[in-house]
Write a structure and sequence with these properties.
The chain is of the alpha+beta class. Helix content is about 25%, strand content about 30%. The longest helix is centred in the middle third of the chain and has 24 residues, at about 100-125.
C-alpha cells in the first residue's frame, strides 16, 4: 500500500539521505497499521541563536480513518536538562550526545509512532488482554538534588521521570542500573515516565 507522504525541512536544506530514511520508516509503519491514509513529517533544525545543545524537532502526523495521530520529538524539559549537563562536559563528551544526531532523533520519533499505532490498532480491534506487562527500563541517571532522573528503554530512548512519579516515595532508594517498570506518557514535551516501580532489589 502506497501512503501519500509530505516532507518538510525547516532551517536546513533537504537531504536525499534523510528523505530516504524517513520514507523507509514510513513504509515500516504500514506493518503496524495497514490503514494509514497519509503521513506528514516535519524536521526542524534549531535556530543558531538558540542555546547550544538544542535538540532537533521532528513531528509526525499520521492520518488514519477518522483520526490524526501526532508524535513529537521537540525541545523539552528533558532536552533542556540534558543541554545544561552537556554544557558542563568537555567538548569531546559533548559531541557524543546521541540526540544531536538527526538520524537517531528520526528513528526514536518513528519508534514512538510505531508504539502509538500498535496501541491504536489494539483499541480498534477491541483487544483486551488479561494481563499486559508494563514496559521495563534501567535507571541511567539520577539527580536527587533536582528531583528527577532518566531511564534507558530497550528501544534506546532516554525517558525523563520526576521524583513524584516513583511509587511509594521510592525515589531516594533508586540507584543507577536498577530495573524499573513504568507507564510511558506522550505529551507535547516528548516522552516521560510515570508510575515508576523498582523491580530489582
Amino acid at each position: 500500500m502506497i501512503v501519500p507522504v509530505q516532507l518538510a525541512f525547516r532551517n536546513l536544506e533537504p537531504s536525499e539521505d534523510l528523505e530516504e530514511l524517513i520514507r523507509t520508516e514510513i513504509a515500516s509503519l504500514g506493518t503496524f497499521y495497514p490503514r494509514i491514509t497519509n503521513c506528514r513529517v516535519v524536521v526542524e533544525k534549531p535556530h543558531k541563536h538558540h542555546l547550544r545543545g538544542q535538540s532537533w524537532h521532528v513531528r509526525i502526523d499520521i492520518g488514519v480513518p477518522g483520526k490524526v495521530i501526532v508524535v513529537n520529538h521537540a525541545p523539552s524539559l528533558r532536552s533542556t536538562l540534558r543541554r545544561m549537563e552537556v554544557d558542563q562536559l568537555s567538548k569531546e563528551n559533548e559531541v557524543q550526545v546521541p540526540h544531536k544526531d538527526i538520524n537517531i532523533v528520526i528513528r526514536d520519533t518513528f519508534a514512538a509512532a510505531r508504539r502509538r499505532l500498535q496501541d491504536y490498532a489494539r483499541r480498534q480491534r477491541g483487544d483486551v488482554k488479561e494481563y499486559e506487562p508494563l514496559p521495563q527500563a534501567r535507571v541511567v541517571r539520577l539527580l536527587p538534588a533536582d528531583d528527577y532522573g532518566f531511564l534507558h528503554a530497550p528501544d534506546g530512548a532516554e525517558i525523563y521521570f520526576h521524583r513524584n512519579s516513583v511509587l511509594k516515595d521510592g525515589f531516594d532508594r533508586l540507584e543507577v542500573g536498577v530495573e524499573v517498570s513504568y507507564v510511558e506518557e506522550h505529551g507535547d514535551k516528548g516522552l516521560r515516565a510515570s508510575t515508576v516501580r523498582r523491580l530489582s532489589h
